[in-house]
Design brief:
The complex is a heteropentamer of chains A (about 350), B (about 240), C (about 240), D (about 375) and E (about 290).
Chain A lengths: L1 H9 L9 H17 L6 H26 L7 H19 L5 H25 L5 H20 L7 E2 L2 E2 L6 E2 L5 E2 L6 E2 L4 H22 L2 H11 L1 H6 L4 H27 L1 E2 L6 H14 L4 H21 L4 H15 L4 H9 L12
Antiparallel strand pairs in A: 1-2, 3-6, 4-5
Helix pairs in contact in A: 3-7, 3-10, 3-11, 3-12, 4-5, 4-6, 4-10, 5-10, 8-10, 11-12, 12-13, 12-14
Chain B lengths: L4 E12 L2 E12 L3 E5 L6 H9 L4 E8 L2 E2 L5 H6 L2 E4 L11 H8 L8 H10 L1 H5 L10 H13 L5 E5 L7 H18 L2 E5 L3 H7 L2 E6 L2 E7 H5 L1 H8 L2
Parallel strand pairs in B: 3-8, 3-9, 6-7, 7-8
Antiparallel strand pairs in B: 1-2, 1-4, 4-5, 9-10
Helix pairs in contact in B: 3-6, 7-8
Chain E lengths: L2 H33 L6 H17 L4 H22 L10 H21 L12 E4 L2 E4 H23 L1 H11 L1 H6 L4 H23 L11 H14 L3 H23 L1 H18 L3 H7 L4
Antiparallel strand pairs in E: 1-2
Helix pairs in contact in E: 1-5, 1-8, 1-9, 1-10, 2-3, 2-8, 2-9, 3-8, 5-6, 5-10, 6-8, 9-10, 9-11, 10-11, 10-12
Classes of the chains: A mainly alpha (about 350), B alpha/beta (about 240), C alpha/beta (about 240), D alpha/beta (about 375), E mainly alpha (about 290).
The complex binds adenosine-5'-triphosphate (ATP) (2 copies), urea (URE) and magnesium ion (2 copies).
């Protein structure tokens, strides 16, 4: 009991919206709903929901880097792409047997992390900040896109895996779970749904603990006033780098899940439009909180998809209008505006007296 | 004989996003007067100054300047009517040069005349010396001098001074007090002064409001100001 | 051995020689005030000591160690802390969180909450603990920043105009706080223009002028120095709170 | 009777919209005609249309949607090859049946796919020898720097060599680039007899205007421009003067079938800026599908493929006669050589009948025997058995 | 080939790249440098200028006037956008990324719906000239001159006029500028309109040489951002040298290794410049200025 309490108390703090028994009760209800829902739904809806879920990791990572750390990374898609391609190259070369796809997933995320360490070191130890950071990260992802787009020729291959240029790489196996009596192939259906849902819950709770820890405190401090944070004795570059790498790994996780979901990865996943989308999700949801980011991302993804399905040629116009209105009318993000209305009984975070 | 009222507030209330700070303030500033406003930290002195110049809206009450209700006017309109404002914390334009900062100060009057510029530079010689230095790289006290000079070039008829002595070396504090008094005598410029520095208040002010928790709790006339002990008591309310 | 020592320290900005061959030594346990005209180079000297600026030449020693090339956070970890001239706080965070961030690595988690509470009382900010720091009045921000600096329990506390914008009363209280910290063994280096404060706390005073050490001595010696009066204090400097 | 459902995934907005809105309209036109005439075997044709917004991820989302939720019988999908590659794994995974009604770089050997567009061997084996004969043997290629451009350039290179010509230059242009001063100079320096322009997308089409402004004055040959992006209508004459294009259809084709098709199209969609070859490919694909379903008496892919295997699935399309090749499930086409005059009017110096999509079959793709779900290129051919 | 021909062609390629970088960037630079707003709808203002220019030319207006009209209309649209949307976001500049991205969606798709997927061009004026066996488009030279004129005019405007000083003051400490009598709202509106108008001018100038489609603005975006960033915070000091440096990089890489490397070279140049000079070229130029 006491241990449970301590566990929950580490999940809470001034850095996250929602606390107290009521909030967690609500959380469990939502989780139970999410677990039960495939039983009442069809394959398409489940597969489509998994598709939405795959993007959430990248959004949460950006929330950590940008919302908490104050550094706008415009290049999360670079890590997404690197991990996606890595997964493709690894599994095309080594197959899917013996649960190798899971090894490939881990390795791919590690590649993204490694790249983030290099890039992050270059950025933060070079004291690049503000919009310059955004533009450098954007440039990096655009370089990757341009480069990958022209790898159509036969000379561009890693082992058996052709990079295949702008058309994108396909034919990699989906994720598999080793299972007694034959591996479980995770096609975009119920099995994959539960795996990704579990991952999402773990990542969400893990990030909550992280941002409410002393590490999270320092991260927020750096966002507010880096000079002061340094003058309190913190090596701010290490904290920023830490957040950047974690955010990159989450983007990488999204990349692997996406690649496995559609058995396809393309340079456009690293292009300008793709790079702008995570920023939109996170900003619309409310970047300075994990929960709002998560909810906001899912809302934006489903609203935009629904609009595209039903809105015909006006879909993009309506999307644009919605974005502008959201920014104007819900300055802290849509989810935050809703949360403020709904979460009152949950004793929302104290935001002072503004 | 009393001069005409230049600026007055009636039941002035103002605050920050729903949080009231000024709780119905009545003050009167007469032409060519130097009035001080004193009070502890956080009682609302700067809030009063900001609402007078128009940087925060009055939620209730009126502000009358030269017989005209100005509480609905935007800050730049009030400035153009002759209000000058030296904020607490200087707020110079950091990436403009000293000269450009001065130029912005003269904007409301349509430009800085040679004579005005020379007058201000004679008050604060360091500004001439550093004419092309970026204001953000000036020392704290130098910035404060710039903030004051920037307002003086436009010859405002009423100056709102929020803690002008802050960060200034003692002998220049005395200079500033002297300059202000001279200016007041020579041109009839009216001054509202928020200060913690008793010497400066005594050197300048003819009258003084004591503020506490957003209300005027006392009004001291000239002779009361002479009593240092009483002053200190009020500042410590 | 001096706790802080600068040797032939120089800093130039373009053609401007802002710190000119400064040799300064601080004895452990002293309260040392640095005064001098606006633009004399006091804040710059602070920034050099803290590593915000790198010197054009010269050396800085802290506790016998050469820290000239250290990063700011490394210096802080060796036992300095600072309150800047312009208040540096975390504006969008609550007052309590500001202190928590400062203190979290200096206190056991179990004691942290209580310690924060004590400091809040001490700073008279308890009623404002859950407000955003950016919404405090100017003076309150000063207090908060002093509190953050002090909470690091530094060996050397650097204060740049700690009482700017404070009423005489509060200035006095700040002086008392400095004296108390000093009594517990903390060395303090303060830049101040408020001579009442200097008189209250300083055991030694250094006057900086045009980037150079211009005079040094006790408060009385400095106040009596006509050269200092001429460049800095003016004639009637000292009547009010003597 | 139950309707037959046809999914339509085409870009009606975004970068490619200019070339693809007409594809949707062509499908609507065909469906309307078929339904008026009693449907397919008495079953009405129902279209499920989504706008893929020139975005690969939308193809992935909507391909799942049409196959799983809307349960369509077949899907007509895709303009860019990248979008085709994005949805193809999903079609394979969900065992769907998709028509790619677009000219492309060739090589898709996938039993779940039928391709009605033209491929390089059809367009270049005709175009390049003709150009070399008329203008000379020195050739310069300016191509989009991605699969389509690179593979097409490879075809050009091979054919030029076979015919004893010489490549005097090759420039590859990243998609989205719109400034060509350096390339224009490179071309002038190499002094080719003609330039093969394989430029894709609206931005790259700016080349023509810029080359004309610099007075390059060389004849041009293309498999993709004019037929797809109707550049001769968009740019002011004479910037496309002496451009030669092999295409299986454009609205200027002067035959009774073509006229009839064009008139029907314009009657239904009077604002259509141009009826391009992809519109015709899409239109004929609907009729082809009708014929196959009626012959198979089923909409199941396996039944339809049995009909294809008979090797006689042919029809009279607006361009002329076309047939499906059972090995590759690609189409034979009538190839028109369109020539752009100084005033941007078009004439057709040459027409080739019944050009087969021979390469895949010769290289070893045989869908009647096995299904590799792969895409091959001349430098990456199918593994020899 | 003789040295003169070679030199001229190198110069021409440089000038061509320079003009494209400057004209793409200056509208963005004004809005970003002055207001801190990252305008992702920059390309759509360019498109607006191009569309208006071409429509006006089709309607019979002489091309130079049509171009000016394009710039003017873009400026008016910019003013409107500022008043309706941007004005409310100055406190949170990063949110303008989302808002302007939304605006760009509205603009591109709205144009597609209203005006169709393409528009017919007007053709490039002035013809060509010959230097040492190569023929060049004279209009590209005009573009280069236009870029120089725009740079000079901007520099003069912001450094030598009241408006310039007012605008820079407003951007830095808006409340203080207001308290000193500056009508900050008007300054913001005018500045944004100026940026939009410059984008429109770029669109108008390039319209005769390009495909006219609703998404045409995107082809300017990368060059625009790269130039602004390499230039650094002070746009008037930074844009010209940044465009010059980048034009050399781009022209050289393109001529040696082709367009792909021209583009990748540009992007790598950004990364390297920012690493070496974290505050851009203007930060570097200003570093020692007391
Ligand atoms: N921007 C702001 N947002 C919210 N509250 C504010 C803001 N600025 C000041 N306050 C609050 O308003 C009250 C009055 O502040 P004000 O700055 O007017 O005090 P002051 O009398 O000038 O104090 P000081 O002597 O410290 O300058 C204080 O409680 C302060 O916390
Ligand atoms: N980055 C810089 N570039 C140019 N000059 C500078 C820079 N920083 C400081 N200076 C100059 O160096 C001198 C010393 O400044 P410093 O801030 O150290 O003064 P100070 O003694 O703290 O003065 P104050 O009492 O006014 O705070 C001043 O003349 C200032 O203008
Ligand atoms: N299929 C093409 N042209 O990409
Ligand atoms: Mg105040
Ligand atoms: Mg100082």
């Amino acid at each position: 009991m006491n241990a449970t309490f301590r566990f929950f108390s580490r999940l809470e703090g001034p850095q996250t919206l929602g606390r107290g028994p009521l909030f967690w009760l609500g959380f469990l209800v939502v989780l139970a709903g999410a677990c039960a829902y495939p039983l009442f739904s069809d394959g398409y809806t489940v597969g489509n929901t998994v598709y939405f879920f795959t993007w959430v990791f990248m959004a949460l990572g950006l929330s950590l880097i940008w919302g908490y750390g104050g550094a706008l990374s415009f290049g999360q898609t670079a890590f997404f792409g690197i991990a996606g391609y890595s997964y493709g190259v690894l599994t095309i070369n080594f197959g899917a047997a013996y649960g190798f796809t899971l090894v490939a997933l881990v390795l791919a995320v590690l590649f993204a992390a490694l790249f983030a360490v290099l890039l992050g070191y270059f950025l933060y130890f070079g004291r690049i900040s503000g919009v310059f950071l955004g533009i450098v990260t954007l440039s990096v992802t655009l370089v990757l896109e341009r480069f990958m787009a022209q790898t159509a020729g036969p000379e561009w291959h890693i082992g058996k895996a052709r990079l295949n240029g702008f058309n994108g790489m396909s034919a990699m196996p989906p994720l598999t779970l080793p299972w007694p009596g034959g591996d479980l192939v995770l096609f975009p259906d119920v099995e994959l749904y539960y795996v990704v849902l579990a991952l999402m819950v773990v990542v969400y709770l893990g990030l909550r603990i992280l941002v409410n820890s002393p590490f999270g405190n320092v991260l927020v401090a750096i966002r507010e006033n880096p000079e002061r944070a340094e003058m309190l004795g913190y090596d701010i570059r290490k904290y920023q780098l830490g957040a950047f790498v974690i955010g990159a790994m989450l983007a990488g996780l999204s990349g692997v899940l996406y690649t496995s979901w559609g058995q396809y990865i393309t340079p456009s996943s690293m292009g300008m439009t793709a790079a702008a989308l995570p920023i939109v999700w996170v900003a619309v949801g409310g970047r300075s909180d994990l929960t709002t980011t998560l909810v906001g991302t899912l809302v934006v993804l489903s609203v935009f998809q629904a609009l595209t399905i039903h809105g015909s040629q006006y879909a993009l116009v309506v999307m644009g209008v919605l974005l502008v209105l959201t920014v104007l009318l819900a300055p802290q993000g849509l989810a935050f505006a809703f949360a403020r209305l709904i979460a009152r009984p949950f004793r929302s975070r104290k935001t002072g007296d503004v | 004989m009393r001069k005409e009222v230049l600026l007055s507030t009636l039941g002035l209330r103002a605050g920050y996003g729903g949080k009231p700070v000024l709780q119905g303030l009545d003050i009167e500033v007469r032409e060519s007067e130097i009035v001080a406003v004193i009070g502890r930290n956080g009682v609302g002195k700067s809030t009063l100054m900001k609402s007078l110049i128009g940087l925060i809206p009055a939620t209730q009450g009126s502000i009358v300047y030269q017989g005209k209700a100005v509480e609905r006017l935007a800050a730049h309109r009030r400035a153009r009517l002759g209000l000058g404002y030296v904020p607490q914390g200087r707020d110079v334009f950091p990436r403009l040069t000293v000269g450009e900062n001065i130029a912005v100060g003269g904007m409301r009057a349509g430009g800085v005349s040679e004579a005005d510029r020379e007058r201000v530079l004679s008050y604060f010689p360091i500004l001439r010396e550093r004419w092309n230095q970026r204001a953000g790289t000036m020392s704290g006290g130098q910035q404060q001098q710039l903030a004051i000079g920037r307002v003086l070039v436009a010859n405002p008829s009423l100056i709102l001074l929020d803690e002008p002595s802050e960060g200034i070396q003692p002998n220049i504090v005395q200079d500033i007090a002297r300059i202000m008094v001279e200016l007041n005598r020579a041109t009839g410029t009216t001054i509202v002064l928020v200060e913690q520095n008793i010497d400066m208040i005594r050197a300048m002010a003819q009258r003084c409001y004591v503020l506490d928790k957003g209300r005027i709790v006392a009004e001291l006339e000239r002779d009361a100001l002479a009593d240092g002990e009483a002053m200190r008591r009020h500042l410590a309310v | 051995m001096a706790i802080l020592e600068t040797r032939a320290l120089n800093k130039r900005f373009g053609g401007l020689h802002v710190t000119n061959n400064v040799d300064l030594a601080l004895e452990p346990g002293e309260v040392h005030c640095l005064i001098g005209p606006n633009g004399a180079g006091k804040s710059t000297l602070f920034r050099l000591v803290l590593g915000e600026h790198l010197p054009s030449s010269g050396q800085i020693l802290f506790d016998g160690e050469d820290i000239t090339a250290f990063k700011p956070f490394q210096r802080i970890r060796r036992g300095m802390s600072v309150k800047f001239q312009v208040p540096g706080i975390f504006k969008a965070l609550s007052v309590r969180q500001n202190l928590e961030i400062a203190m979290q690595h200096h206190y056991e988690p179990a004691h942290l909450v209580a310690e924060i509470g004590r400091l809040l009382d001490f700073l008279k900010l308890a009623p404002d603990a859950d407000r955003l720091a950016g919404n405090l009045s100017h003076g309150q921000k000063q207090w908060l920043e002093i509190g953050m600096a002090v909470s690091l329990k530094p060996k050397l506390l650097l204060l740049d105009e700690p009482t700017a914008g404070m009423s005489p009363e509060e200035t006095h209280a700040t002086g008392e706080m400095v004296q108390r910290l000093n009594a517990d063994g903390m060395t303090v280096l303060a830049v101040e223009h408020d001579m009442a404060f200097v008189r209250q706390v300083a055991q030694k005073v250094t006057v900086l002028h045009l980037g150079q050490v211009f005079a040094q001595g006790t408060v009385d010696e400095i106040v009596a120095d006509e050269r200092v009066a001429a460049i800095y204090l003016g004639q009637v400097a000292e009547t009010a709170h003597a | 009777a139950d309707p037959i459902k046809l999914g339509v995934l085409e870009d009606q907005s975004g970068d490619f919209a200019a070339a693809t809105i007409g594809k949707v309209h062509a499908i609507q036109l065909a469906a309307e005609e078929i339904n008026k005439a009693g449907g397919i075997d008495g079953r009405p044709l129902e279209l499920v249309i989504y706008d893929t917004q020139s975005d690969n991820t939308r193809y992935q989302e909507f391909m799942r949607r049409v196959l799983q939720r809307d349960k369509v019988d077949a899907v007509f999908a895709g303009f860019s090859s990248a979008s085709r590659e994005a949805y193809r794994p999903i079609v394979d995974q969900l065992d769907g049946f998709a028509f790619y009604n677009n000219q492309y770089e060739g090589g898709v050997c996938d039993a779940h796919m039928i391709v009605t567009g033209a491929v390089p061997e059809q367009q270049f084996s005709t175009l390049i020898p003709w150009m070399m004969e008329k203008y000379g043997k020195k050739v310069y290629t300016l191509a989009a720097d991605y699969n389509f451009g690179q593979i097409s350039a490879e075809w050009v290179r091979n054919i030029v060599k076979e015919h004893g010509g010489e490549m005097v230059g090759e420039d590859f242009i990243p998609l989205g680039v719109s400034q060509f001063s350096q390339n224009i100079q490179n071309i002038q320096k190499a002094k080719p007899d003609f330039v093969v322009t394989l430029l894709v997308g609206t931005a790259q089409a700016s080349y023509y205007e810029q080359a004309a402004a610099a007075n390059v004055g060389l004849p041009m040959a293309s498999s993709v421009n004019v037929g797809q992006g109707y550049e001769h209508k968009r740019f002011k004459p004479p910037s496309l003067k002496d451009m030669y294009v092999t295409t299986n259809y454009i609205e200027e084709v002067d035959s009774p079938q073509s006229k009839a098709f064009y008139d029907k199209f314009k009657a239904k969609f009077p604002n259509e800026p141009y009826v391009n070859q992809e519109a015709e490919n899409s239109y004929l694909a609907v009729y082809l599908y009708k014929q196959m379903v009626e012959r198979a008496k089923s909409t199941k892919r396996e039944d339809i493929r049995k009909v294809i295997a008979q090797g006689d699935v042919c029809m009279d399309a607006p361009e002329g006669k076309v047939c499906i090749d059972p090995k590759s499930q690609h189409m034979s086409h009538t190839i028109y050589l369109a020539h752009v005059n100084a005033d941007h009017s078009i004439d057709f110096p040459k027409v080739w009948q019944d050009i087969k999509p021979y390469w895949l079959g010769e290289a070893g793709c045989d869908l009647t025997k096995s299904n590799p779900n792969a895409q091959y290129t001349p430098s990456n051919p199918p593994p020899k058995p | 080939m003789d040295v003169g021909t070679l030199a001229f062609s190198a110069l021409y390629q440089f000038g061509d790249a320079f003009a494209f970088l400057v004209l793409s960037a200056c509208g963005l630079a004004v809005i970003f440098g002055m207001m801190g707003v990252i305008n992702l709808a920059h390309g759509e203002f360019i498109m607006c200028g191009a569309y208006v220019t071409v429509s006006a030319a089709h309607a019979g207006l002489p091309l130079p006037l049509a171009i000016l009209l394009g710039a003017l209309v873009a400026a008016l649209v910019g003013a409107l956008v500022e008043i309706v949307v941007i004005r409310h976001l100055y406190e949170r500049p990063l949110d303008t990324i989302v808002a302007t991205w939304g605006l760009s969606l509205i603009a591109t798709q709205g144009t597609l719906i209203l005006l169709g997927s393409t528009m017919a061009g007007v053709g490039t004026p002035f013809g060509s000239f010959q230097v040492g066996g190569y023929s060049y488009s004279l209009y590209r030279v005009v573009l280069f001159v236009a870029a120089l004129v725009v740079l000079a005019a901007l520099y003069a405007l912001f450094n030598w006029t009241r408006f310039g000083v007012m605008a820079r003051a407003t951007i830095q400490v808006p409340h203080m500028a207001a308290a000193l009598g500056v009508d900050t709202r008007r300054v913001y509106t005018l500045t944004f309109a100026l940026g939009a108008g410059l984008a429109g001018l770029a669109g108008g100038l390039y319209a005769p040489t390009m495909t006219l489609v609703p998404t045409m603005g995107t082809t300017f975006i990368m060059e625009a951002f790269v130039t602004v960033v390499v230039g650094g915070a002070d746009v008037f000091l930074g844009t010209a040298p940044a465009a010059a440096v980048l034009a050399v990089v781009k022209a050289t890489m393109t001529s040696l290794y082709g367009q792909l490397f021209g583009q990748i070279g540009l992007l790598l140049a950004v990364i390297i410049v920012i690493r070496v000079l974290p505050r851009g070229l203007s930060g570097f130029l200003l570093r020692e200025r007391a």
